[in-house]
Design brief:
Elements (H helix, E strand, L loop, with lengths): L1 H8 L4 H17 L3 H5 L7 E3 L2 E3 L3 E3 L10 H5 L5 E7 L12 E4 L4 E4 L8 H10 L5 E6 L10 H12 L5 E5 L14 H22 L5 E5 L5 H13 L4 E4 L20 E4 L3 H14 L5 E4 L5 H10 L3 E4 L1 H6 L2 H15 L1
Parallel strand pairs: 3-4, 3-13, 4-7, 7-8, 8-9, 9-10, 10-12, 12-13
Antiparallel strand pairs: 1-2, 5-6, 6-11
């Protein structure tokens, strides 16, 4: 069924198809067809970050930026859904076209630029949701906020979403907001994380509930750089790391149509790079939970993420190319591995 739908959707430009597909999932959800599309939610409960996940397969941030489709996506069998990236103020993002398919490589390039309706809108959508899985909220900074003042935007989002998230992800690795990736290193990273950890702990005390903080990092780092980031995460009491975001490298797609478009490359070409980062993180952070994302398009590739050291996995580009059935396929593969 999805192969037919995809053949129709792929005749549209990527961003238009994205919107049409999400509206289709909303309709399927209202008709009660979501579980059938995803093959039914696999029950494989696991405790990560002190949270009870129904299974190990989640949806990565970026697909549902405003939590407009949270119920429909959750009905496909995800154990957790991460919405956002959200910023304090609404912003339109970069000019269109800003999303491109590379079907020969099972890949997508996007330069969306954190287009979203703002944190207040997202919070209202999350509050209205009936999804019973784990909800992550991914936060970022507005384009017009100088990098030197980025902590103010992250703190503003943290305060708004804290009461409505099971965990919060700090996105410092998108290549589509100028200067954002500079926050991954040195004193800028330490200052940002220490401020967020302090405020998060204060909010936790106020509500009597711990909301874990995760940090999403880029794949474009060597082992030494990953080590520096890992030590900073540990020093600031961060609860988990998400590895990885999109890559700016084009080595794996050189010569393909759209390969030279600016933006972050996701999908199959980032698979090995993200796995390398996960392996290094596991060496550096033997106890910290890792959420693996990047290039998962089969149950086998989900298992490879686990073998690299990930505790949980997230889907994005593979979900677009393979459709909802990928959710159940990955969840069943991971459950079977754990059972051995």
């Amino acid at each position: 069924m999805y192969s037919l739908a995809r053949s129709i959707l792929f005749r549209l430009d990527a961003e238009t198809a994205h919107g049409v597909a999400l509206k289709g999932l909303d309709l399927a959800g209202r008709l009660g067809l979501g579980p059938r599309l995803g093959g039914g939610r696999v029950e494989d409960p696991v405790d990560v970050m002190g949270l009870d996940f129904p299974n190990r397969v989640g949806l990565a941030a970026g697909l549902d930026k405003n939590a407009d489709h949270l119920d429909a996506l959750g009905a496909l069998g995800f154990g957790f859904v991460e919405v956002g990236t959200v910023t304090p103020k609404p912003q339109s993002g970069n000019p269109r076209p800003r999303m491109f398919r590379l079907p020969e490589a099972g890949a997508i390039i996007n330069r969306m630029g954190f287009n979203n309706a703002g944190v207040d809108y997202l919070v209202e959508k999350v509050k209205a949701s009936r999804y019973d899985g784990v909800i992550g909220i991914n936060i970022g900074k507005n384009l017009t906020t100088p990098v030197e003042q980025a902590v103010d935007d992250y703190l503003a989002c943290l305060r708004k979403v804290h009461a409505h998230a099971h965990y919060i992800t700090v996105n410092i690795s998108s290549p589509n907001t100028p200067g954002l990736r500079n926050l991954q290193f040195g004193e800028q990273l330490n200052g940002l994380l220490s401020a967020l950890r302090e405020e998060g702990s204060r909010l936790d005390r106020d509500v009597g509930r711990r909301v874990p903080l995760a940090v999403k990092i880029a794949p474009d780092m060597d082992a030494e750089e990953v080590g520096l980031v890992a030590r900073c995460l540990a020093a600031n009491g961060i609860d988990a790391v998400i590895a990885t975001n999109t890559t700016v490298s084009r080595d794996a797609v050189a010569g393909l149509a759209n390969a030279e478009e600016a933006g972050g490359l996701s999908g199959r070409p980032v698979f090995e790079a993200s796995n390398a980062v996960i392996r290094e993180l596991r060496l550096q952070l033997p106890e910290m939970p890792i959420i693996g994302v990047g290039g998962i398009d089969s149950g086998e590739s989900a298992l490879a993420k686990r073998d690299a050291g990930a505790d949980l996995v997230q889907l994005y580009s593979g979900f677009i190319y393979r459709g909802p059935a990928l959710v159940g396929e990955c969840a069943r593969a991971l459950k079977a591995q754990v059972a051995k």
